[in-house]
Amino acid sequence: MKLYPLLLLAFLSANVTGQDLNYSSQDLVINRYINGTLLIPNVDDVSSLAIIIGGSGPTDKDGNQNFQKTNNIKKLAVGLTNSNITTFRFDKRIVKQIRENNVNNAIIFDDFVSDASTVIDYFKKQNKYKNIYVIGHDQGSLIGMLAAKDKITGFISLAGSALSIDNVILEQVEKTAPQFSPDTKRIFKILKTGKTTTDYPVALSSIFNIETQRFIINWMQYSPTAILGTLEMPILIINGTKDLQVSEAEAKLLKEASAQAELKIIKDMNHVLVTIEGDDLENSKSYNESRRPLAKGLLENIISFIKK
Predict the structure, then answer these.
(1) Which phi and psi (to 5°) does residue 278 adopt?
(2) Which pLDDT band holds residue 6 (cuts at 50, 70, 90)?
């Protein structure tokens, strides 16, 4: 008999929680590659949609990977939707392939661009939103730039690199393992011709295995600054002072690439969009601490940009 009150309490709690939400949620299947979640504010007139594109690796719609749990994309989506901006976020196609144990090793960077473009087209055809914005985090910044051209109202880059991927990798190798810099330069020289190579040090195999080489050959043809400079729309570039992966200098290079861009540097925000008050150890630990809130000022700057 004691079970009944417990069930009743659980039922009432679930309904109170649902009533407290300021939005409704819909899971959408755009096509066989793209699954995502649409959050819709509980108001009569919603004119703006923000499409959020996650970063590099097998990143899901919430901003997580197997060994990285931040929920930063989900927090961003909820925060924007609570400010009466509809949001859509989606799993990268590689996430679905991993879940189905059916990974396509021939996947290339342009596949991610195609997926983002398909998402934009899906919502444009609905003709429901007056304004459509793309928010790209990390690798999603370049993907978003390429997909957004001539299609949307405005673009927002979150911790997006200004360098082509070959220069990013070379810079990282020079900082962490400078003894492999000559080999890295040699390999990239080959990749720039469109060819692959098996002649690389074992220590660099995680970067230069054959499947990754094919992906990089496609990816490295794009210069973020050059692409950003072709966008004829309002642009917001956001970076943090505690970002260990993308420096403030890169954010400034992006700003310089477009007269239409504005730059916001958020104090103590790191690459996964949370505030770091301590050292690099705290910074690295935060990549697996989903309890952390988004950095102060992040949502405010994005909302202001979209609503102005």
Answers:
(1) -105, -140
(2) very low
